[in-house]
Amino acid sequence: MNKKGKLFVISGPSGAGKSTVVSRAIEGREDICFSTSVTTRAPRPGEVDGREYFFISFERFREMVEHDELLEHAEYVANRYGTPRSYVNQRLEDGLNVLLDIEVQGARQVRKKMPEAVLIFIAPPSLEELERRLRGRGTDTEAAIEGRLIRARQEFQEADFYDYLIVNDDVDRAAAKLSSIIEAEHCRFEDWAVWLKSN
Predict the structure, then answer these.
(1) d(CA 69, CA 81)
(2) How many independent structural domains does the chain possess?
(3) Which residues have a Cβ under 8 Å from the Cβ of 58 and sit 6 or more positions away?
């Protein structure tokens, strides 16, 4: 039975450990892929069109927004980024699960356009632990750390529309929970209704 894939949206504040949890959860799996976004920024050295991003003009981006070709879009540092609906739909039809690593505002847009998407919020054990992790990186200024903590508080308050919350107090445990959610979502009764009727 060639089942359609599912769209999983992953969000969480900077420093929550999203990337580590996700990479560990999908390690060795060939049924999961990340979505490739479109962007209006220029490619950086070594980046390939269609691999890191689809690099497009501002005019093309505007057209995509007007024709509802993006599941979500946002602007960062004078450039625009978005998730192309056709790319995601093609991967889902191919039977692949698609992962989107986006912020809360983008997830809200996806929820409106694809209500069947599964939204997962990855959180640190506490804001104190988040601050400790951000300081431990040694890459941010004091102002940047404060900004990230303020944004994290906002995200916690805005994220009440997500389907699942994973607290990343231990990477292996959090990754196991994410894997379990992906498996459980493929066991939904309604997804097997057609198969049951044919047997």
Answers:
(1) 13
(2) 1
(3) 40, 80
